[in-house]
Amino acid sequence: MRFSKGDESEAEFSSPPLQQEESIQFVRGVSMAQPEKIISTAANYRVNVKKRKTLITPKNAPYFFIGPSLILIIIFTIYPVISSFILSFQEVRGAEKTFVGFANYTRLFHDPVFYKSLLNTFEILIVQVPIMLFISLLIAVGLHSSIVRFKAFFRIAYFMPAITALVAASIVFMILLDEHFGLINYLLSLMGLEPIHWLTSPFWAKVSVIVVMTWRWTGYNMVIFLAGLQAIPKELYEAASIDGASKVKQFFLITIPQLKPVFIFTVVMSTIGTLQLFDEPFILTQGGPNSATMTITLYLYETGFKYFEFGYASAIAYILVIIIAVISWIQMKWVGDLEE
Amino acid sequence: MKKTLPFILILLLLFVSACSNKSNGNEAKTGDTDHPSGTITVWGWDVAAETMKLSVEKFKKQYPDVEVKVEDFSSGDLYEKLTVGMAARGSGLPDVVLMEDERIPGYIHQFPDGFTKLDQLGYDKYKDAFNPAKIASVQDKEGNLIAAPWDIGPAGVFYRTDFFEKANVDPNSIKTWNDYIEAGKKIKDATGAMLLPIDIANYDGVFHMMLQQQGISYFDKEGNILLDSDEAIRAMEVIKSFHENDLILNNSGWDGIVTATVNGSVATVPYGVWYAGTIMDQAPDLKEKWDVFYLPGFSEGGTRYANVGGSSLLIPSYSENQSAAYAFVEFFTTDEETQLLGFEKFGLFPSLKKTYESPILNENSEYFNNSPIFKKFADIVEQVPEITLDENYARGSSMMSNTQAAILLEDKKVESALKDAKNQLKNEIKK
């Protein structure tokens, strides 16, 4: 199918003679004085528009372009979102679904495991994100400076974990952190230290999860910071040095303020990512011991796939969505207010 | 634009309805029962899947027209795929699936029409061929056979004969859990090995064995929660004293337990009979250094028998080729030779009664200190107390793992921790 202007003119040429005759008669009633040839073409054009409507016009063509992806988004994103919203008010058993009103939500607000998973997630968030962003910034500034050599190598080396399959990485960490047979405790024992119960004590299990997360995402954030650093105009630094500002002063008065949008981006992204934390605790600790590393998404998964409570799991998902939306909004708003 | 939008919507509707319309069917898909043919897919894991693969050859002799495709997943993956497939009304499901007995009530409860009732296909004629406790565990609440019984796991304590000798402990003297702890202390002094491995945060198997030998599980028949019963407190106290005496190797996961077994970090492993296969498989050079005694009792003369695990075969009702699926299930679970194949190769202990008379099962095992350990297990099959496994088993089990961690790692009091566990579980189940 065609839909350009050219399409219409082509259609015009190919119209059958009979139609032409018709149109001539039609126009004749309007004006007889005009030369026949011109009349016929103009009339032909008009009639053509009226009679043969092409399905696709320049106006609606874009919808056909976005159509396929729109359909996919509706099927795989919008439909599940809506149906899981409905599901969160239902109880599912086999193929049967019964509406239970707000029962899933009220149950959620009385569920100690949910609160614990919420608390765990925020503990990890508050400890992990600042540490990680600080290290990322440090590395980014280091790699941006002119002193460091082999920059490309370091950039790749730091970024590598972000593209490693998380399951494989977590399994490697599981082996490294094993209490009795792991490499890390072996090294500690060489230094004469007591072995640490990495995955089996509630406190150290959380630390392990934080370590693995930091390992994975530091390089990712570093790359974003690096991009931000490179976008800062050199003139600012030149002007500052002329005015006699020290390197440290330049860092705090130029680099940090200039990086602000990048900071906002990384903080929001890391927050959202941490709130959805799943893989690391799932593989390393399965949420244990005694729910010490149970995160919201892990709890969601367990209720859905271990206990078959799909409705309740959907309710958890929706509460998580609301939490993420509120926190992101606060972060944006807070930063926006500072900007004024 | 006004006209294209409805057009897109209609297209979409058609598309969506085309997607969802597919597998509504629950019509008879029995096929030709006398001469089953076609291809069937079977899901299993680990050595069980291996056994099924090995059995195909003989099966084909009886049913030359049936192709059997055995797919081997980890059990965790298998359950996830099964759950998703069931929730999606059957898409992507196999014709036969292996399942651990404690999982069956949960699946039947959640998907009441998800699995074919085997009595309808004539399996009820084998009811007497199996041990009754096993039959009880594969029935739904109305007494229909949902699964075909396969292996079971009478429990015992596997122990290192050389460690016991070195510590001068006589395994026959261990009659109660207290004796066991005393022996553990001696062995630790003499060899440095821990008494037993427990994945404290994730595995409450030892606790559950202790419940079962006292005749209960997490729930009774009426669905009452028994987590704060005297039996449970007694069992947890024993586990706590393991820990206080520093006799537990706290290890994460199955691999951790196997590693500990192989490299001599532990002197004993209380587990189901099928663990024999794992030991033989993973530690061939420890030949003659392992043997078995029955679980210690809570009092002298108390019951020393329990069951850990065991699995059965189910036919999802969405299977397109039920007759072939049934032919395979029937063959696989009732053919004596096939049952003994899994036993011989991997120590998978059959629940088919007539296999217990076979010479392989009764002879002395060379690996296990030349003692007839499998006969020992066969002898107790009938005496294992029958317990209630219901749809909340998975919840009960994970609640108990958490409580175990709270008691041992966070120093909670046994009684109050069990009471809390009971109340929380009650809340979760009540919804």
Spatial extent as radius of gyration of chain B: 24 Å
Overall average residue pLDDT of chain A? 82
Largest interchain contact: A-B, 44 and 49 residues
**Amino-to-carboxy terminus distance of chain B:** 49 Å
Subunit organisation of the chains: heterodimer
Question: So how many helices of chain A?
Answer: 16
Q: Tally of extended strands of chain B?
A: 10
The helix-strand sequence of chain A is HHHHEEHHHHHHHHHHHH
Instruction: Give the strand order, joined by hyphens, for the main sheet of chain A.
Output: 1-2
Helix content of chain A: over 70%
Percentage of residues in DSSP E strands of chain A: under 5%
Poorly predicted runs of 5 or more residues of chain B: 16-28
Tertiary shape of chain B: globular
Secondary-structure-derived class of chain B: alpha/beta
Number of helices of chain B: 17
Query: Could you describe the largest sheet of chain A, including whether it forms a barrel?
Result: 2 strands, antiparallel
Could you walk me through the main structural features you see in this protein, from its secondary elements to its overall organization?
The complex is a heterodimer of chains A (340) and B (431). With 340 residues, chain A is an all-alpha fold. Chain A is built from 16 helices and 2 strands. Chain A has helices at residues 5-13, 17-28, 36-51, 61-87, 103-109, 112-144, 151-163, 166-177, 183-190, 202-230, 234-242, 247-258, 260-275, 279-284, 296-306, 310-339, and strands at residues 90-93, 96-99. Chain A has a two-stranded antiparallel ribbon. In chain A, a hairpin with a 2-residue loop joins strand 1 and strand 2 (96-99). In chain A, helix 13 packs antiparallel against helix 16. Chain A is globular and about 70 Å long. Chain A starts with a helix and ends with a helix. Residues 1-37 of chain A have low confidence and may be disordered. The model of chain B is unreliable at 16-28 (pLDDT under 50). Chain B is 45% helix and 13% strand. Chain B has 431 residues and is of the alpha/beta class. The termini of chain B are far apart. In chain B, helix 2 (46-62) runs antiparallel to helix 13 (336-346), helix 8 (205-213) crosses helix 9 and helix 16 runs antiparallel to helix 17. The longest helix of chain B is centred in the first third of the chain and has 17 residues, at 4-20. Chain B is built from 17 helices and 10 strands. In chain B, strands 1, 2, 3, 4, 7, 8, 9 and 10 form an 8-stranded mixed sheet that branches. Chain B has a two-stranded parallel sheet with strand order 5-6. Chains A and B meet through helix 4, strand 1 and helix 15 of A and helix 1, helix 3, helix 4, helix 10 and helix 16 of B.
